[in-house]
Amino acid sequence: MFMKSRFRCSGSFLKTPIIACLVLFLAASLSARAELLIRITEGAGSAIPIAVVPFAESGSMPAGDKVGSIVQADLTMSGEFRPLEPSKMLSLPSERSEVYFRDWRMLGQRYVLVGQLTRNGDRIQARYELFDVNQEKRILGETAAVPASNLRSLGHHISDRVYEAITGAPGVFSTKLAYITVSGEGEQTRYRLQVSDVDGKRSKVRLESREPILSPAWSPDGKKLAYVSFETGKPVIFVHELATGERQKVADFPGLNSAPAWSADGRSLLMTLSRDGNAEIYQMDLASRNLTRLTDHWAIDTEAAWDHADRGIYFTSDRSGGPQIYHMERPGAEPRRITFGSRYNARPRPSPTGDYVYYVHQRDSAFHIARTNLETGEETVITRTGSDESPSVAPNGRLLIYATRQNGEGVLTVVSADGGAAYSLPASGGEVREPAWGPVTR
Amino acid sequence: MKMSFSTKAFAMLLSAGLVAGCSSTGENMEEGTYGSDVAAIDQDGGSTVYGGADGSSVSASELTDDERRAAQEQAEQEALRDITTFYFDFDTSEIKPDARDVLVAHARYLADNPRQQVRLEGHADERGTKEYNLALGERRANAVQRFLIVNGASRGQIETVSYGEEKPAVRGSTESAWAQNRRVELVFQ
Amino acid sequence: MKGHKRDIVSTGKAPLKSPVAVSVGLHLLVFGIALAGWSWNTPPEPEPRSISARLISPAPRPTPVVEEQDEADKEQERKQAQAREREEAERQRQAEEKARQEAERKAQEEARRREEERRQQEAQAKELAEKQAREREAARQKAEAEAKERERQKAEEERKRQEEAKRRAEEEKRRQEEQRKKEEAERQRREEEARKEAERKRLEAERRLREQQLEALADQARQEREAEARRQQEAAAARAREAQMLSESEKYQALIRERLSQAWYPPSSATENMTARLQITLLPTGELASVKLVGSSGNTAFDNSALSAVRSLNRYPIPDNRDTFERYFRQFTIEFNPQRLR
Fold first, then answer.
1. Interface chains of chain B (3 or more CB pairs under 8 Å)
2. C258: domain range?
3. CA distances from residue A321 to A259, A298, A440, B91 in whole angstroms, order as listed
4. Which contiguous run of DSSP H or E holds residue A159?
């Protein structure tokens, strides 16, 4: 072709062919020198190997779990990391000069976290550094200090920082969980509303009752819990301030008072009331206690939750014959059905990242947690256990906690939002149910 | 349709009641179609009936046929009203046919006793979500309440509450346990 | 030129029959004989003048022995020598006398013998002469008779010969006539043939020319085809090489893609919009020489994950063929862009 163009060009003084020649020549030369391009569109799909080296300690340290093991457990729970067993480490560096990247590379580790703890009076100071083994460069290097009694918080803080540095997403290891435990039988039955660290540790009872407690819901600022209590013999909604222990009865209407859900500004609650004859969804302004009715259908409408935009709501309704998930774009709009793949879909919990909605989903005769991709409509079951309830999404949208049964006992399980890794929280004795994942508070 | 033990007992009782009623009527019929004063003489277990009322030493209560029927009915009704738990199929609040008579009995009773209060406690089995089950329990209780009202009870007598899946009658994750937990309980105050 | 000479030698008559050659040969012969004769007359060794051919070995002459002596003894020596010499001379004289007498005697004897020999020789010669005369006579007579016979024979032969000659002449004449006729016919035939031959040759030449032309054309066409085929073959080979390089490069691209995928941990916050572009430079061993972030995704964690993945490979799979390596894998670009298949 090049020859042909030359032939065309020769003996001609018109502009166009010359330009054509130049273009062709350029094109030919460019294509000859075009570089190979390889596109990588998929990753390993497995957890990132990371070495959390036990921190060096100077001074007396409180009894209990070491900071390193807290970080290790947190990162493991996230499902995104695979921390190396300390017994396999070839060395225990605590600062950069002691880090031999080749050793860690050989062990297949992508990151190394090292640190030092120093007791200073009743405070503990920490200095920690995170290294990228292959790039041989430091990604994170910080200090922090906590009261000695709060070492666990330090561990969770470091987990957050490490998680963020590597994944770019906020860590949720400093968040809290609220849940209900039941113990005893008959007259001795006790229900307890408890709040703990995200790993189930440092659990504190906030309410104890002989009657059922349901549906704990965190206020957006993490300072209050709304829940349903049967202590008066019927379901009543309370708002409970954690710091003081003070609580207020906010809904005690005839019939149901249930399924409280906070708005993003913390000023109103969605709730299910049957004061008008059957279960409908209302919005209550907490300051004025004014009610706005949002649904109007003879079917059961309950379990409402604000969507990612905080403009519309998801809820459960059996208006089509059995419970299904619906979305109302804004209060008063015509609800649109979201789930179709099963005759029982209930309790929607949209992800804070706005891409999925999670819910309880019946398949065959088992109840799983499933999620629907809000863009494609595709539904995926994400749990392998079969009597699952109460999904609650972590604030970064990457993890999900839910209640299930294990060996006849109610336990809580954390899974990756895509159903990858699962991590059971250590059983605290007795039945555990109704987990609610607290917000990130800075 | 699944029948729990209580239901079967109830059914048997009902049949027994019916049969009992039948046999009385049958015997009456056999001996004649006249009034009870003729047939009363040979009745077993019954009190001796003489024509007309008098002040004899034998204080036998004298019952007319109507009264006896009423008494029998009342016995039936009482027997029926022994049943205070009504069961439902999964995810429905539909009252089963064999519960109707019982509920009618209750309704009548309530109607006859306007000051009688009753609380209807609605429940659901453990499967599914708690809040939805709470609403489902309520719906069942409401269904029973509607039925009672339709059959004579007044709204003021009835209180409903739902415990959802929180207070199972039978613990366990078996079909049997679930079936026994899908219920509405009548609690007379 | 060689051929030309050869041509000259091969045409014409045989070399032996040419007159020039005959004369040369004769000359050579004569020269040869002369040379041979010359060599024959040359005596094998020179005769000594003083000694006759028959001299029988005389008494050996004493060879004077000269010895070197001292000056002192010389006088005495000389005297002695003189004495000896006188004696010697005497002896010699006597010896000579004896010898002379002897020689005389011998000479007489010799003369006598010679005389005898001469006489014998004469007798022999006479006898020989007589014999020879007789033989000569016989021979002469024989020769005469033979000559007469020969003459007669000759006359006879002559007569026969003449007759024969006459006959032969006639025959010859006839034959020549025939010959002439034959030759005539022959000549005509030959002419005819020559003509036909010429014609045939012309046709032949024409045909051959045509054939040659066709052949030349066919040849040319064939050469062109071959050249074309060769060109195409080369082009195909080049394409195949190119394709092989490409397919090989594709194979290794796939390998690299697989290895990097397995080594890449995209951060969970990654979205499908994020693309990190890295320029890779490899050593011929497959090891990473350098990596440069030429296109950031805008997200540090994402960029780092790509850099970490690229650096985590100890050795990149590269083709053995050095050309393919240089062309495609010495320096290339990798794009990290997650596509979730869910």
1. A
2. 170-263
3. 21, 11, 38, 9
4. helix A151-167
Contact (CB<8Å) A255/B91? no
- Inspect the interface and report whether the beta carbons of B131 and A360 lie closer than 8 Å: no
Beta strands B118-123; B158-164: pairing state: parallel
- What local confidence, expressed as pLDDT, does residue B52 receive? 42
Q: Are C and B close enough to touch, i.e. 3+ CB pairs under 8 angstroms?
A: no
How many CB contacts within 8 angstroms connect chain A with chain C? 102
- Domain assignment present for C226: yes
Give the Å distances, CA to CA, from C178 to A293, B113, C172, C173, C191. 155, 179, 9, 8, 19
All domains of chain B, ordered by start, with CATH? 8-77 (no CATH), 84-188 (3.30.1330.60)
The tokens for A29 are 């030369």
Give residue C45's Cα distance to chain centre: 44
Q: Return the pLDDT at A337.
A: 95
Q: In the 8-state DSSP scheme, what is residue A32?
A: H
CA-based nearest residue to A388, from A360, A409, A416: A360
Choose one of C240, C263, C286: the last residue of a domain: C263
Q: What fold does the segment set A48-167 form as a domain?
A: Rossmann fold (3.40.50)
- Say if the Cβ atoms of B134 and A230 lie within 8 Å: no
In the prediction, which pLDDT does A66 show? 94
Q: Is C311 a domain residue?
A: yes
**pLDDT number for residue C108:** 86
Contacting B with CB below 8 Å, chain A residues are 212, 214-215, 228, 230, 233-235, 255-256, 258-259, 272, 274, 278-279, 300, 302-303, 316, 318, 322-323, 344, 346-347, 360, 362, 367, 387, 389-390, 405, 408, 433-434
- Entry pTM: 0.66
In three-state form (DSSP H/G/I as H, E/B as E, the rest C), the secondary structure along chain C is CHHHHHHHHHCCCCHHHCHHHHHHHHHHHHHHHHHHHHHHHCCCCCCCCCCCCCCCCCCCCCCCCCCCCCHHHHHHHHHHHHHHHHHHHHHHHHHHHHHHHHHHHHHHHHHHHHHHHHHHHHHHHHHHHHHHHHHHHHHHHHHHHHHHHHHHHHHHHHHHHHHHHHHHHHHHHHHHHHHHHHHHHHHHHHHHHHHHHHHHHHHHHHHHHHHHHHHHHHHHHHHHHHHHHHHHHHHHHHHHHHHHHHHHHHHHHHHHHHHHHHHCCCCCCCCCCCCEEEEEEECCCCCEEEEEEEECCCCHHHHHHHHHHHHHCCCCCCCCCHHHHHHHHCEEEEEECCCCCC
Give the pLDDT band (50/70/90) at residue B14: low
Specify the amino acid at residue A339.
Answer: T
Quickly count: other Cβ atoms within 10 Å of residue C338's Cβ: 21
Q: How far is A62 from chain C, CA to nearest CA, in Å?
A: 34
Which pLDDT band holds residue C264 (cuts at 50, 70, 90)? Answer: very high
H/E segment holding residue A115:
strand A111-120
Percentage of chain A beyond pLDDT 70 is 92
Q: Does C335 touch chain A (CB under 8 A)?
A: yes
The CATH number that applies at residue C279 is 3.30.1150.10
Final residue of a domain: which of C263, C282, C305?
A: C263
Q: What are phi and psi of A138, to 5 degrees?
A: -85, 135
Q: Which residues of C309-331 are buried (b: 16+ CB within 10 A; e: fewer)?
A: bbbbbeebebbeeeebbebbbbe
Using an 8 Å CB-CB cutoff, list chain C residues near A398. 268
- C93 belongs to a structural domain: no
φ, ψ of residue A203 in degrees (nearest 5): -80, 140
- The answer, yes or no, to whether residue A34 has pLDDT greater than 90, is no
Superfamily of domain A176-437: TolB, C-terminal domain (2.120.10.30)
Task: Indicate the number of domains in chain C.
Answer: 2
Cβ–Cβ pairs < 8 A, chains A and B: 85
